[in-house]
Fold this sequence. Notes:
By secondary structure, chain A is mainly α. The first copy, chain A, is built from 10 helices and no strands.
Amino acid sequence: MTQDIRTEPAARRPGGRSARVRGAVLDTTLRELAEVGYAALSLEAIAQRAGVNKTTLYRRWGSREGLVLNAMLERGQREVPIPDTGSLRGDLAAYATEIVVASRTPVVEATIRTVASVGDREPRIADASRGFWRTRFEFAGEVVRRAIARGEVPPDTDPNLVVETVVASVYFRLLLSGDELDDGYVDRLAAFVAAGASAAGGAQR
Amino acid sequence: MTQDIRTEPAARRPGGRSARVRGAVLDTTLRELAEVGYAALSLEAIAQRAGVNKTTLYRRWGSREGLVLNAMLERGQREVPIPDTGSLRGDLAAYATEIVVASRTPVVEATIRTVASVGDREPRIADASRGFWRTRFEFAGEVVRRAIARGEVPPDTDPNLVVETVVASVYFRLLLSGDELDDGYVDRLAAFVAAGASAAGGAQR
């Protein structure tokens, strides 16, 4: 089953019939989600529209949640581009804004809430989520690697920690505290984390 | 109904029969949760054990989730003490560790996952959660106010932003990425955020 839980971007998906079926199912899943919402999402409808058997869906994705999450993984990797504003603070603010916007689409919000609610009770979802965030941070770490190259932050700055801190703060407000995710907050957060990155090399020694 | 959603610590709870009933119900809820777990938690059992009518529970707390959350609010405020290690970095690491430990108890984890899963669909829970975190951050901001008094961070450092960034990072790993919440991570996080606080005054100007 593990070959179904992929985190590489769609562009790197290998060809062949199996990959085409997989792509058709995931695209259909997102279209259905957009049309009927998560609560009314039906595996029957997806199977019919994608021209596959419903048992195929269960065999490959295990559950409705697993299917939605896998669809979101690929879509998510495509839809949050890595900004390049010329400063770490600017990049982090732009990236945080993209995440806020993406997380407010009903489909993404439903997926995130589902992941947060299941935890290790659904190992396939937990694994897929771990893989998703690992890939996401690896890509987004580019903004930190560029800041290192510019001499803006120390060479031993941990790209993962910087990006994760920003992403975590956005999702905390979305999922738990419910506090405003407005531009003012995003700017203060980006300035704070960028300042931490500039200073952290020294503080950790 | 709003008078039932309180965020002040138990010690400031006013007296009277209504407050006693409330306290008995919340204590019983936590005892039942510890004994049978969230999935098997029954409002009937809580009502019987606390000596109140089940309709009273529905009237005051709206749902099982609302009741559990309110019970957790008070318990949470009591159970995460504010550390005082002499440095902001040490305090943030100690505070993060307390939150990791608390979040691993089945009752707290179940409550957090429930809150994350419902969002604005359950306004009473969303409101109570907002109030809970506001109070939590207000108390925990003490570690930042002390750091300001020691001259460790600039006077205009935002206590809320500092504490929230640490708390958010812990819950992101718990709820979404599933990455390790070990001592190594907690220390790096605390060092990073403390460095950000030391530097942020300059960076934001």
